[in-house]
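Notebook entry, cofactor series.
This is the third protein in the set we're modelling with a bound small molecule. For this one the ligand is zinc ion. I'm keeping the input format identical across the series so the outputs can be compared line by line later. Sequence and SMILES below, as received.
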Amino acid sequence: MTTTLISGIGELTTNVAAGGDPTGTLRDAAVLIDGERIAWVGSSATAPAADEVVDAGGRAMIPGFVDSHSHLVFGGDRAAEFEARMAGQPYAAGGIRSTVQATRAATDDDLRARLRGFIGELRTQGTTTVEIKSGYGLAVAEEERLVRLAAEVTSEVTFLGAHVVPVEYADDPDAYVDLVVGPMLDACAPHSRWIDVFCETGAFTVAQSRRILEAGITRGLAPRVHASQLGPGDGVRMAVELGAASVDHGTYLTDADIAALAASDTVLTLLPGVEFSTRQPYPDARRLLDAGVTVALACDTNPGSSFTSSMAFCIAIAVRDMGMTTAEAVWAATAGGARALRRDDIGRIAPGARADLVLLDAPSRVHLAYRPGVPLVRRVWKDGTAVV
Ligand SMILES: [Zn+2]
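Returned structure with ligand:
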């Protein structure tokens, strides 16, 4: 196996907590890659020899971004809906149905080509792990096809048959829930690690959501939940009760929601691209962090409510508008995402972890928020291989 030493890193964010600093930041640091894993981390001055040496030239390095929430398997786009929204129309969950139509009309190869394009787009922006949900099929064979295609590009696949009630079941949503927990779950579970539900007015009630998640848990899938995006509700507390790895959105959280999250292992994943693109108020991340909630940041890349795939953009919003420091936002976009996926082999730079690394064309991670919209990702290693 080949070893690669990256030395001369001006600022290394390890996310291995040290002396009260959760980011474990090192100066003039070096990282040794051995095969797919990190073998050594320390000072450039004491670095071991390696087959290949890369000079980081004083630039900053962070762990690869872990984007724990995306919807990347779909057909069409909704640019016209975005334009209408920017002209004053409100966002509603129902827009998902137009993407369902376009997705059902697409061939496997159409969806596969699009998906592979997105994976390339993510990599060039520093994302080395992405979770991908189904949810634009809403029929047994269609949902099975989406989780199967997602599994071709990631191990973090989420069955989201309960994204919205399809038009065919508009008069009998409970009959659709029967389908989701029965034949659809049977078809999708073999390709999936996670089960998710959109618990929101206009999508699924708390009772329906609980039934769907419990069915998934029985089949060996672990739960995660979309909740409190469009208004307050009981979805967050239900998710905590069921031991969900993450509750996502949390635009409208009550004090009771925050207390429940703080006392649990459930991560709250903030998706600021959604508030940006739907003109909802940004959630107050400071309030969450000060209460002791574990916070992750993710893109929620989807054609309706957030069509960005830039974790750096989400970090910039979190710092400018949500009360996070850059250190907290970068932690949330890397280690936080890993927690939201219950992974400890990614999101940190330490011996034994996967060698998923991002070298920034900047002396500090602060530039991710300080220089919004600027492509600062210079090099990316995924499982020890340079991919950018
Ligand atoms: Zn989502």
